[in-house]
Structure formats: structure tokens, C-alpha cells
């Protein structure tokens, strides 16, 4: 055994003493850190340190309060800072929590930093574990703020900077905050950052809120797999994309919010692993596929919002025991189908149910054990049928019920709702409704929609509705004058369109300056009506402009379209603060000019002005150009003339300009507003060249200049317009080739191009065909009909329409479905062969190359155009046999190969069995069905000039049938064009023979008018 010397023993003692002191100091440091990480306030026994008070004093000195604030300071510096509002200290008097929003309790105002030097302000507050600067404008530019915070405040567990004026990008230094469990950066739209992938390493993160931050790019989906993550909110980042990962079994996620982002894909079946999930909000995203049935087994679920996506299939089988806590279920605006099971109405906690705008069908069964908490039911815009279940009338707490646009059978008695005393919103349509004087005597509605309910008179119970503000009785069979008591109610919105009603000659209008009650002839108390919205289109109103409207000083939206009003549009209409004014389809013949137009109220409010289809003469009043908010101006089909005013080009908000069917003779480059989405000047007398300023309209989607006298070369420079979808230049004097060999152009979105009836020449080059990018994309996954113009942000409903020409007949499409694709090069002087590259235009529905000088054989590659429904190659110099491959075009409904030099046997089978002989006339060497000419070369009849057989083609269109499609109202050639989306997600065209045959003369009218089916 070795013995130590006295010196060695002393050295050993010193080592032990140093070790003891080290461990003692380390334990003190750890205790200090542990104390700082505790959020429990313990300041009652410890005064704050001087360095902390000094730091807070410096912070307060740097705060800038709004002028409206009653505060000049947050804290009294003479008191203990650990007792201040919004401040929490640990045991040793160091601040661990700072919450300025709770210290500054004047909500609605925000405070800011005079000098946003975060490093200086927080350098002595390094023990903070929670920092809340919500609504404090720190005006931090770039990524400096997150670098400073992560350096100065390394112990942060909670960082909240909502609406704090910070900008991006987010820097990876935030990953140095190892204790961070909550990060709130929402409502800082200037972050504009790519998603923070470094957060995938934040293993302690429990809450992440990056909503409304302007994030863009693809979100790293491994962040969803963080082991402690409970709450994640990425909503309102419109450019943020991503998909879900496969969720792990041990996930802690309780709320998952992605509303109004660009996330897409299927919801994975592993969503069932989120056993703690309480809130799932995927509304207004791009998800698709079937909703996993396992969602119905998430027992903690309280809110489920999958609205405005493309989900299909059936609704998950929600049961009382499975989702006992589910309070809010929003599945509207999808493609859900199948039966709606009544068990949904029995979920014990359900308060709001919205299944509107789907494809649900079948009967609604009666249900027992209805949820007593159910407040709103939205089932509109489905295909539900049968009787409305009487169980609905027994829901005691119901506030809102919307069953519009279904196929429910009636009659329905309004008295059935008499026990639902809380009902304030009732919307029914397309069902026979019966009412009596006491129908809803004890129910006070705020909103009542009863369009298309077969009503023959104004329901009497409306007299007792003292809270009614919105009333829609449109499209019924109500006749006569509008009763006097209607004008003495609380209504702000009244829709009576498509009823044969009229205004009284002397309306019983009572104008008062306050809400003093008045009494009608029955002694019923009511209040004078001050209308904001009045819709009375198609009411057969006659005479001059209704004078009573002059007193409606709060009127915002007025629709008197499609009546029989005559005379002048009065000057006083421009003194109102209207946003929407529709006087179209009347017989107004004079537009009172405005005096001092700049100061008139309409100048700052008018958004939509629709005066089309009247008899207005003269020029467009230049005062209209003073409407600083004007978005839509439609003065088409009047008698306007002269030059289109240049000042229209200075209206910054103008997006739709429709001046079709007038007598304008010129338009300059200055008249083109750069923000236009739609410009339609067809059927005028415009001469000269195409305004080159059109190239500046980068948002332009529709350009229709057909039927003028414009003389110019093909505007290849328009290909610079990336959003252009519709280009109509037909019936002008354009000339020359439409493309150059070897020159690459591109029309990425164009799906309707009409260059017919011009003076174009040259070959149809493969380069031109290859440039039509918008016609090469098929949309087989499109299950919801979308129309050109749906994205226009315009007050009111504007329908983009177009007229196509077929065999000399103008055929009007009242709306343009985005799937409709048409190429019309007819009546020009093109020559050479039809290029084989035509096969790449996969989405073509209408192809018209008639009345040119094309020669050679019909390309067999046309058989690749599987969407094709109309093919016209007539009056060319085509030769050879008809390719038998064309029989593969099973959707082809119209084909015209007449007046060429074709020969041989006509193919048989599929659509070729329905084409009449007029499809082949003028080809004396063709034989076989449907021609009487047998395939015998000894008999060849000479061709007949095309003009002698125009009627046979007309009769062919009228006699055309497609049997067995089994769907209603699709695209109808020449008469009306709507849509039908079939299960295979495509469009089919057909004609209702019985309806059209009896109206032949009206439809065609010498083949020159635009025709509509109603």
C-alpha cells in the first residue's frame, strides 16, 4: 500500500476542494436556468434587479404610442418591475416573461419602436423564456431580427411576433433556440420567405404559426413529423405548396390548419394516426381524391373543414359514438356524391353543417335523436330529392336553413317552421311553397329566400316580419303591382326578378329622417325601407324610369334589366352612390349628360355599368372616364358611334370593356387600359391597324375584334400575352401568313382562335400548330365546370360569350367553358397540305378549315384528336380516300367533307353511321353509305356548286340527333352552349330536335344573327 507524503496530501485536499466548489457553482447555475425556464410567477417574494429595471426603462423610452392612445407609458418605473403587467420574474429577480400586448390593453391601436435596435433593447434580458411582441411594430427589415433574437435571448421557449412588421427571409439562426416550443410569426405578410426547412430540427417545437406570412415554394413535410408538434397553422399563404407525409403512430398533432394555401394531393390513410386531432382545416386548397373514412374514427375531432377542394366519393360514415365532439363540419364546394345519411343530423355536439355545392343525391330519411345543438344546415346546390324530412322542423335551436337548388318535392308549408323560434335565415327554392296569414307569426326572420317556389302572390305573413332585411321572391308567378306594405318594412335587399310585377304609378313611399315607427293601413307597426339592393329584372316593367328610386338614397346595387322601359336614363341616377347599375335589355334611347361629373357620388363608387342592348345614340360620355373604381363597362348593342374615347385607357380599374354591335369607326392605342381582362369590340366599323398598346395588356384573357374592317398583318406580337384564352379576329381584312417557318412562338393559354373570313395566305406551318400550347392540353381530371371570366373580381355576374361560325351560320355560346377548344381558319386563302402535326392539338373540340385551298390527303393523324366533336374540311382541294381511322373519333357529331376531290368508299361504323349524305356531296368519286351511289366506278355524278346545297346542311343540323347520352343540356351547336360533365369527365354536344325543329326560321334568320336557346 502506497502512502502519500504531507505535501501530496495537501495537493489532494486542494483538488477535492476545487472539485467541490466547481460542482457547487454548477448546481447554482443549473438551478438558475431551471428557475428561468419556469413560467410560474414567483415575483411576489423577490424584487427585480436593477439591471432588469434599467432594461425595461430603456424599452419604455423607445416605445411610440399612437396619437389616439390615452397612455404615455406602460409602467410606473418607481414600482417593482416584477409586479408590472406583462412582466414575470424568477426567484432571483430576473425577468423571464415579457408580454407587451397584455401590458398595453388598448386593443385596436398598435405601438411601435422608435429605434428598432433589438440587440440593445434585450441585451440585459437574456433570461427571458417568453417574449410576446404581438402588434408591436418593430419594423425589422431583412433577417437581422431573428439573428439578434437567437443570439441575445438563447433561452426562449415562446417567441410571438404576430403582426409585428417583420420581414424575411427567415434565417436558420432560429434553430439555435434549442428550448423553443412555441413560434408565432403570423400576419407578417412581408416575410415573403421560402418555407423554413431548418425548423425540422426543432425537436421541442409544439406550436408553429406561420399563417398569412407570404410564404412561397414547397413546405418541407418532415416538419409535420416533429415528435412534440401539437399545433401548426400555415393558412392564408396562397403561394405555399406541399403535400402530407405519412403520419406516425405517436403523433401529437391537435390542430392542423392549411386553409387557403396551395397544398394538394390526397389525404393519406395515415391521418387516422392523429388520435389527438381536434381541428383539421384544409379549406380552399387543392386536395382531391376520396376523404378517408377513418376520419370518422378520430374521437377528439371538433372541427373539420375540407371545403372548396376537389374531393369526390361519399361522405365518411360519421356516427354519434365515433365523433361525439364534432361541432363544425364544412364539406361544401367539392364533388362529393352518393347518399346523405341522416345520422349526420344526430351527432350530439354538431352545431354547423355545410354540405352545399356537391353532387349528393337521393332522399333524406327521417331521423330521431336529432342534435339539440344544431344551429345551421346548408344543403344547397345538390341533387337531393323526395320530401323534406319533417325531422328538420323539430330541430329546436335551428338558426339557419338553406335547401336551395335541389330536387325536393312539395308542397311545403311555411307553417311547418312555426316552432323554430330562433330561425333567422331560411332559403328554399325549386319546391312548391304554401303560406297563409299565420305561417310564421312567431318567427322573426332576417333573411328569406323563396325563388322558384311557385308562389302566386306576396305572402301575407311578411307584414309581421319586423326584422326582415333580405327578401328574394324571384322567378315565381307573382303578378300585379308590388303591394304598399312592402315599401314600409325594414328591407334593405329585395329581389323580385322574373315575376310579372310592376311598380305602382304613385308608389306609397314615406320618407323620414330617422327610424320613427309608422303604421300601415292595418295598424301594423313597421319602419320605412331604405333599400341597398333592388333586383327587378325580367318583370315586364313598362313606361319610363321608375321615379320612386330617386328617393332610395342608400341604394348600392340596382338591376332593372330585361324590361320594357323607354325614354331617357335620368340625370339624377348619377347622384346616387351606386356600385352596380344594370339597365341592359330595355329600350332607353337617351343618356342624360352629367353636369360637373367629377364631383358626383358615382365617380368614387361605380364598379359595374351595364347598358347593353338599348337604343342609346351618340358617343360614349367622357364623364364615365371619371369613375375611378369602374371595373366593367358594357355598352354593347346600342347605336353608339364615332371614336372610342381615349380617356377610357386612363381608368386604372377597368378590366372588362364590351362595345360590340355599335358603329364605332376607330380606336386608338390610348383607349386601351393596361389592366383589361376582356376587350370586345366586334361588329363595329373599326378601320386601320390593330392598336399596338394591346401588347401592354399582360392580364388580357379575351380579345374579340371580329366583324370590323381592320387591315393589318397577323398580330404575332400578341403571343406575349401569357393569359390570352380567346382570340377572335374573324371577318376583318387581315392578310399575309400567320407564321414564319423556323420561328418559334407560343400561345400557352389560348383555346379559342377564330381567324376566319380574312385574307390570310400561305401554308399552315407546323411551327404555327406547335405554338398552340393551350390546345395541346387535355383536362380529363376537370370534374367541375369552369368558365372564362369566373375569376373576374367584378360586382355582379358577367358572362363571357363568343360567337363561332359554322357553314355560314353564326352560333352563339352564351358562356365559354374553359374546356371548350376551337380553331377556325375558314374562308381564307391557305394552301398546301394540312400538317400531320395537327395531331398534337389533343383538346380540340371544333376544327374548321373550310373554304381554303388545302390539298393533298386528309391526315390520318386527325384520328388522334379524340375530343373532336365538329370537323369541317369542306370546299378545299383535298384528294384521296377518307382515312378509316377517323371512325375512332367516337365523339364526332358534326362532319363536313363536301366539295373536295375525295374518292373511294366512305368509312363505316361508329359516328360515320349518323352522318347524312350532305357531308360528302360535291365529291363525285365517293361511294357507299349514306350516298345512293354504290361503290361502282362506272357511275359518277358530277358535283353541284356549294351554293345550291346550303339548305341541305342547315336541315342536317336541325335533324341531327345523338341518342342515348342520357344527360341534359350540354353544348348545343348553334343554339345555346352550356355544359355537361360526365363520369368520364368530358363534354358532349347534342341537339334537342323537338324543341328546335319548330323554331327553324327564328334560329337561322338568314344565318347571320347570334342565336340563343332561351
TrEMBL record:
**Entry-linked Pfam families:** LRR_1, LRR_8, LRRNT_2
Indicate where this protein resides in the cell: Cell membrane
The topology of this chain with respect to the membrane is: Single-pass type I membrane protein
N-terminal signal peptide? 1-34
Classification via Gene3D superfamilies: Ribonuclease Inhibitor (3.80.10.10)
Main subcellular location = membrane
What GO terms fall under cellular component here? plasma membrane
Name-wise, this protein is Leucine-rich repeat-containing N-terminal plant-type domain-containing protein
Q: Which organism is it from?
A: Populus trichocarpa
The record's SUPFAM superfamilies line, in alphabetical order, gives:
L domain-like
Q: Does the keyword Repeat apply?
A: yes
Domain (Leucine-rich repeat-containing N-terminal plant-type) spans 50-90
Keywords of this entry: Cell membrane, Glycoprotein, Leucine-rich repeat, Membrane, Receptor, Repeat, Signal, Transmembrane, Transmembrane helix
Cross-referenced PANTHER family:
LEUCINE-RICH REPEAT RECEPTOR PROTEIN KINASE EMS1-LIKE-RELATED (PTHR48061), RECEPTOR LIKE PROTEIN 30-LIKE (PTHR48061:SF2)
**Keyword Cell membrane included in the entry's annotation:** yes
Q: Which family does it belong to?
A: Belongs to the RLP family.
Amino acid at each position: 500500500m502506497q502512502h502519500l507524503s504531507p505535501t501530496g496530501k495537501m495537493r489532494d485536499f486542494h483538488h477535492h476542494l476545487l472539485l467541490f466548489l466547481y460542482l457547487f457553482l454548477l448546481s447554482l447555475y443549473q438551478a438558475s436556468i431551471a428557475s428561468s425556464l419556469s413560467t410560474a410567477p414567483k415575483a411576489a417574494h423577490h424584487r427585480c434587479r436593477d439591471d432588469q429595471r434599467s432594461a425595461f426603462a430603456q424599452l419604455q423610452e423607445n416605445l411610440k404610442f399612437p396619437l389616439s392612445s390615452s397612455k404615455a407609458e406602460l409602467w410606473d418605473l418607481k414600482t417593482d418591475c416584477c409586479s408590472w403587467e406583462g412582466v414575470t420574474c424568477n426567484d432571483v429577480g430576473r425577468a423571464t416573461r415579457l408580454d407587451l400586448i397584455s401590458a398595453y390593453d388598448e386593443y385596436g391601436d398598435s405601438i411601435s419602436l422608435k429605434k428598432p435596435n433589438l440587440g440593445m433593447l434585450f441585451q440585459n434580458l437574456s433570461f427571458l423564456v417568453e417574449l410576446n411582441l404581438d402588434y408591436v411594430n418593430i419594423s425589422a427589415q431583412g433577417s437581422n431580427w431573428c439573428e439578434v433574437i437567437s443570439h441575445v435571448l438563447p433561452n426562449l421557449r415562446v417567441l410571438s411576433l404576430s403582426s409585428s412588421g417583420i420581414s424575411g427571409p427567415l434565417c436558420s439562426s432560429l434553430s439555435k433556440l434549442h428550448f423553443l416550443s412555441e413560434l408565432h410569426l403570423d400576419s407578417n405578410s412581408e416575410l415573403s420567405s421560402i418555407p423554413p426547412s431548418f425548423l425540422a430540427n426543432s425537436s421541442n417545437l409544439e406550436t408553429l404559426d406561420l399563417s398569412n406570412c407570404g410564404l412561397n415554394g414547397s413546405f418541407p413535410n418532415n416538419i409535420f413529423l416533429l415528435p412534440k408538434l401539437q399545433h401548426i397553422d400555415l393558412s392564408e399563404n396562397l403561394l405555399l405548396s406541399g403535400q402530407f407525409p405519412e403520419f406516425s403512430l405517436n403523433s401529437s398533432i391537435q390542430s392542423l390548419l392549411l386553409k387557403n394555401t396551395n397544398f394538394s394531393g390526397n389525404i393519406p390513410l395515415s391521418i387516422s394516426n392523429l388520435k389527438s386531432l381536434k381541428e383539421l382545416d384544409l379549406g380552399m386548397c387543392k386536395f382531391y381524391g376520396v376523404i378517408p373514412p377513418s376520419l370518422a374514427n378520430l374521437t377528439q375531432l371538433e372541427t373539420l373543414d375540407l371545403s372548396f377542394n376537389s374531393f369526390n366519393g361519399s361522405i365518411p360514415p360519421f356516427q354519434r359514438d365515433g365523433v361525439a365532439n364534432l361541432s363544425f363540419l364544412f364539406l361544401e364546394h367539392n364533388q362529393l356524391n352518393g347518399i346523405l345519411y341522416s345520422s349526420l343530423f344526430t351527432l350530439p355536439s354538431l352545431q354547423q353543417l355545410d354540405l352545399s355545392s356537391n353532387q349528393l343525391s337521393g332522399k333524406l330519411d327521417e331521423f330521431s335523436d336529432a342534435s339539440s345543438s344544431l344551429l345551421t344546415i346548408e344543403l344547397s346546390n345538390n341533387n337531393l330529392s323526395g320530401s323534406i324530412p319533417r325531422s328538420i322542423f323539430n330541430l329546436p335551436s335551428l338558426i339557419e336553413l338553406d335547401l336551395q337548388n335541389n330536387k325536393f318535392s312539395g308542397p311545403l308549408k311555411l307553417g311547418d317552421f312555426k316552432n323554430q323560434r330562433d330561425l333567422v335565415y331560411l332559403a328554399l327554392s325549386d319546391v312548391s311553397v304554401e303560406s297563409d296569414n299565420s305561417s310564421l307569426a312567431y318567427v322573426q326572420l332576417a333573411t328569406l329566400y323563396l325563388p322558384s317556389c311557385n308562389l302566386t302572390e306576396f305572402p301575407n305573413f311578411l307584414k309581421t316580419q319586423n326584422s326582415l332585411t333580405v327578401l328574394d321572391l324571384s322567378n315565381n308567378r307573382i303578378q300585379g303591382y308590388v303591394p304598399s306594405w312592402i315599401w314600409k318594412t325594414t328591407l334593405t335587399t329585395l329581389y323580385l326578378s322574373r315575376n310579372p310585377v310592376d311598380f305602382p304609378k304613385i308608389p306609397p313611399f314615406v320618407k323620414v329622417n330617422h327610424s320613427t315607427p309608422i303604421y300601415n293601413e292595418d295598424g301594423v307597426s313597421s319602419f320605412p325601407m331604405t333599400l341597398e339592393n333592388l333586383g327587378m329584372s325580367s318583370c315586364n316593367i313598362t313606361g319610363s324610369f321608375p321615379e320612386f328610386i330617386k328617393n332610395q338614397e342608400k341604394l348600392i346595387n340596382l338591376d332593372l334589366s330585361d324590361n320594357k322601359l323607354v325614354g331617357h336614363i335620368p340625370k339624377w341616377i348619377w347622384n346616387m352612390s351606386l356600385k352596380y347599375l344594370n339597365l341592359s335589355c330595355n329600350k332607353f334611347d337617351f343618356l342624360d349628360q352629367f353636369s360637373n361629373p367629377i364631383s358626383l357620388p358615382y365617380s368614387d363608387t361605380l364598379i359595374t355599368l351595364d347598358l347593353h342592348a338599348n337604343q342609346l345614340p351618340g358617343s360614349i360620355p367622357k364623364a364615365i372616364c371619371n369613375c375611378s373604381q369602374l371595373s366593367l363597362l358594357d355598352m354593347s348593342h346600342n347605336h353608339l358611334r364615332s371614336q372610342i374615347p381615349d380617356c377610357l385607357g386612363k381608368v386604372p380599374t377597368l378590366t372588362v370593356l364590351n362595345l360590340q354591335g355599335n358603329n364605332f369607326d376607330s380606336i386608338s392605342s390610348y383607349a386601351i387600359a393596361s389592366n383589361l381582362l376582356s376587350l370586345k369590340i366586334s361588329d363595329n366599323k373599326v378601320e386601320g391597324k390593330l392598336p399596338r398598346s394591346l401588347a401592354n395588356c399582360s392580364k388580357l384573357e379575351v380579345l374579340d375584334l371580329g366583324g370590323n374592317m381592320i387591315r393589318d398583318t397577323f398580330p404575332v406580337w400578341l403571343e406575349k400575352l401569357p393569359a390570352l384564352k380567346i382570340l377572335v379576329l374573324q371577318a376583318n381584312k387581315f392578310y399575309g401568313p400567320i407564321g414564319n417557318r423556323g420561328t418559334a412562338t407560343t400561345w400557352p393559354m389560348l383555346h379559342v382562335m377564330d381567324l376566319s373570313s380574312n385574307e390570310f395566305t400561305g401554308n399552315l406551318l407546323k411551327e404555327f400548330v406547335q405554338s398552340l400550347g393551350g390546345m395541346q392540353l387535355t383536362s380529363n381530371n376537370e370534374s367541375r365546370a369552369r368558365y372564362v371570366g369566373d375569376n373576374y373580381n367584378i360586382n355582379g355576374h358577367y358572362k363571357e360569350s363568343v360567337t363561332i361560325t359554322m357553314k355560314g351560320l353564326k352560333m352563339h355560346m352564351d358562356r365559354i367553358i374553359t374546356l371548350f377548344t376551337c380553331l377556325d381558319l375558314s374562308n381564307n386563302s391557305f394552301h398546301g397540305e394540312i400538317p400531320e402535326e395537327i395531331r398534337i392539338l389533343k383538346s380540340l373540340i371544333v376544327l374548321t378549315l373550310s373554304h381554303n385551298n388545302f390539298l393533298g390527303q386528309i391526315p390520318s393523324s386527325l384520328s388522334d384528336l379524340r375530343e373532336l366533336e365538329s370537323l369541317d374540311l369542306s370546299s378545299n382541294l383535298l384528294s384521296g380516300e377518307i382515312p378509316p381511322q377517323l371512325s375512332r373519333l367516337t365523339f364526332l357529331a358534326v362532319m363536313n367533307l363536301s366539295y373536295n376531290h375525295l374518292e373511294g368508299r366512305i368509312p363505316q361504323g361508329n359516328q360515320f353511321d349518323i352522318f347524312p349524305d350532305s357531308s360528302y356531296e360535291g365529291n363525285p368519286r365517293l361511294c357507299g353509305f349514306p350516298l345512293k351511289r354504290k361503290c361502282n366506278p362506272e357511275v359518277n355524278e358530277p358535283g353541284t356548286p356549294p351554293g345550291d346545297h346550303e339548305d341541305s346542311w342547315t336541315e342536317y343540323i336541325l335533324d341531327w340527333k345523338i341518342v342515348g347520352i342520357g344527360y341534359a343540356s350540354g353544348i348545343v351547336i348553334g343554339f345555346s352552349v352550356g355544359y355537361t360533365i360526365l363520369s368520364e369527365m368530358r363534354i358532349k354536344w347534342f341537339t334537342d330536335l323537338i324543341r328546335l325543329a319548330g323554331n327553324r326560321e327564328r334560329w337561322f334568320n338568314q344565318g347571320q344573327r347570334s342565336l340563343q336557346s332561351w
